[in-house]
Amino acid sequence: MADTAAQTEGGAGQNRPQDLHYCEGLARLRLGDGFFRPQSRPSRDLGVLLARCRPQPLEVLDLMAGCGIRGLRYGLEAGASAVWVNDADGDRLPLMQANLAPLAAAGCAVRTTALTAQKLLAACLLQERRFGVVDLDAFGCPTPLVAAALEALQFGGVLYLASTDGRSPTGHDRAAAVRSLGAAARAHPASWELALRLQIGVVARAAWALGQGVRPLFSFSEGRTFRVALELQRRAEPQQERLLGLLAHCHGCGEQFSQGLWRLRQWPACGCGAQAPPLAISGPLWLGPLQHAPTLEAMAERAAEAPPGAVAPASLRLLRRLQADPGLPERCWPMAELGRRLGGGPPATEALLAALRAEGFTALRSGLMDGQFRCNAPWPRVLELAAALNR
Ligand SMILES: C[S@@+](CC[C@H](N)C(=O)[O-])C[C@H]1O[C@@H](n2cnc3c(N)ncnc32)[C@H](O)[C@@H]1O
Fold first, then answer.
1. From the CB of 114, is ligand 1 less than 6 Å away?
2. What span, in angstroms and rounded, lies between the C-alpha atoms of 63 and 224?
């Protein structure tokens, strides 16, 4: 990577050296002066690995392509037979076309456009064009495009969705969450996970409205961008709608509850007793698994076969973290919160998880947020076990 443009910060690159190439995976390209974040490499690596696991021949639609790096990598590394690479910014088109030129030699058909994603997806609908992977690496919240993006997928195809709207789904802008997600989003200790569950909930509802179903394949965030990859199912699996529900958190005692929308009931009493503050309730959101183990395993196999350096070490670490945590149970707490509530700090995480498992509960580290754990034990029991370990 000797000629990789030196960049530590992402974003628009007016001061970026124009003559240098940036290298990532098997791709070597120029970045131009538009938006690009080298730090987002794990998301691109995981997208390529996922695409490599999809049935061939594979056609990919990259709706918000920037310099075209994803399309180039899908063609060079995932064996895509065709990529349609689009960005609404027409000034980026010549750069994108130059960057994608190596795909001709790789036998990958390329189409480039400078349309808004809205117009492109409307055209796909009219022409009944469907893809195996639709990559929607959006600025802001992608909700307005979700239904049209699903319509551009083959059955069994994958929507790889990003949202950079971190405020509304993490409870920092409740009015915007209602508007953009059709959901309540309240401050929650596992805020990134809440954002991912709200995002999946939006996609699931859109798929169900089309008579189809979804399966989350992987979900992750670094706190700035929220990424989910979902497989479109011809029909929703039986009782899939039971996975849409509400997550409640008591800011008084720390207890969490969840329940499906299909059979709403009163919430149980938390440990605050008569003085209980109102529960902070978020949703509707996805209460099901966030990761699909067979898909992650297949991706890890592809990563092991890849040429040295094609998958970044950070991407491999992310993959391993996601493999170790399916995203269930959905109740998730920071160890630090436990420490605060006990006074004197939290116990060792592994010791607490072992104590919970010894009582028959499911308990594991969160793969999504460092220093968090998930379990299905009543919160008072978690506190008791943690306090006993601290003695
Ligand atoms: C997050 S950047 C894409 C980064 C790129 N996928 C990567 O991995 O480097 C989002 C891109 O979407 C483009 N964009 C914004 N709104 C759009 C729209 N409505 N339709 C198509 N492209 C759009 C912007 O010009 C920008 O290049």
1. no
2. 20
Residue with tokens 């183990």: 293
Q: Whose CA is nearest to atom 3 of ligand 1?
A: 66
The token pair at 145 is 């495009």
Q: Are residues 342 and 304 in the same domain?
A: no
Alpha helices in 225-324 (DSSP H): 293-305, 313-323
Q: Could you give the maximum distance between any two Cα atoms of the chain, in Å?
A: 71
**Which residue has 């670490």 as its token pair?**
317
113 pocket-lining for ligand 1 (C-beta < 6 Å): no
Q: What is the ipTM of this complex?
A: 0.99
Query: 29 and 136 share a domain?
Result: yes
Tokens 């055209």 correspond to 123
Q: Can you say whether the dihedral through the CA atoms of 95, 100, 105, 110 is positive or negative?
A: negative
Looking at the structure of the chain, the number of domains it has is: 2
Dist CA 199 CA 206 (whole Å): 11
Distance 115 CA to ligand 1 centre (A): 11
| Residues in CB range of 142: below 8 A, 6 or more apart | 136, 149, 161, 162, 163
Establish if 1 belongs to a structural domain: no
Let me know whether 250 and 359 are in one domain.
Answer: no
The CATH number that applies at residue 379 is 3.30.56.70
Instruction: Compute the distance between CA of residue 386 and CA of residue 351 in angstroms, rounded to an integer.
Output: 9
Range of the domain at 351: 332-390
Taking the centre of ligand 1 as the mean of its atom positions, its distance from the CA of residue 36, in whole angstroms, is: 10
Q: Which amino acid, 92?
A: R
Q: Are residues 339 and 316 in the same domain?
A: no
How confident is the chain (391 residues) per 10-residue block, as mean pLDDT?
Answer: 38 66 96 94 98 98 98 98 98 97 97 98 98 96 97 98 93 94 96 97 98 98 97 97 98 96 95 93 98 98 96 98 98 96 93 98 98 97 96 84
CB atoms within 10 A of CB 23: 15
Whether residue 120 is found in the same domain as residue 158: yes
Q: Which of 342, 327, 330, 309 is nearest to 245 (CA)?
A: 330
Q: Does residue 270 lie within any of the structural domains?
A: no
